[in-house]
Design a protein that fits this description.
two-stranded antiparallel ribbon; about 20% strand; Collagenase (Catalytic Domain); 5 helices; about 140 residues; single chain; 5 strands
Length: about 140
């Protein structure tokens, strides 16, 4: 089975869910930064003998998504933890397509595309049940 991201075909894509501590370890190992971040994305060339399609991995910080989503929901009530988690996943996939957010133009382009993905997922009712209410309540306490 293959996944497609903006016209690119992947042999497989893994989604890893972690927390701040896990993200710090991964960020330090792969990027030399000792800080938590919202998402990391990695594309992998096929191994010899495998189908000639790359694989990908998107690592999402669920702890940060819940905390930020709860904060945003308290601010305006329209954007909760499920939206934030979907945003991080979209952002990671956008990185895999070659987009970057290293400068202000790139950040604007990615934010527009990230948000469009989340809005489409919301219209298709793909965000309901992404996080259980108990998971969000645990973060509030």
């Amino acid at each position: 089975m293959s996944a497609t991201a903006a016209g690119r075909v992947w042999r497989e894509m893994s989604i890893v869910l972690t927390d701040d501590a896990g993200m710090v370890r991964l960020n330090l190992r792969h990027l030399g930064r000792s800080e938590a971040t919202d998402v990391l994305s990695f594309g992998y060339d096929p191994l010899p003998g495998e189908e000639d399609l790359p694989s990908a991995e998107v690592i999402v910080n669920v702890q940060r998504a819940v905390e930020e989503g709860v904060r945003r929901q308290a601010d305006d009530g329209s954007w909760g933890p499920c939206h934030e988690l979907a945003l991080y996943l979209a952002h990671g996939c956008n990185h895999l397509t070659g987009l970057n957010d290293n400068d202000s133009a790139g950040r604007r382009r990615m934010k527009k595309r990230d948000t469009a993905w989340v809005r489409e997922a919301q219209r298709e009712n793909l965000l309901s049940g992404l996080l259980e209410e108990g998971d969000v309540a645990d973060q509030r306490n």
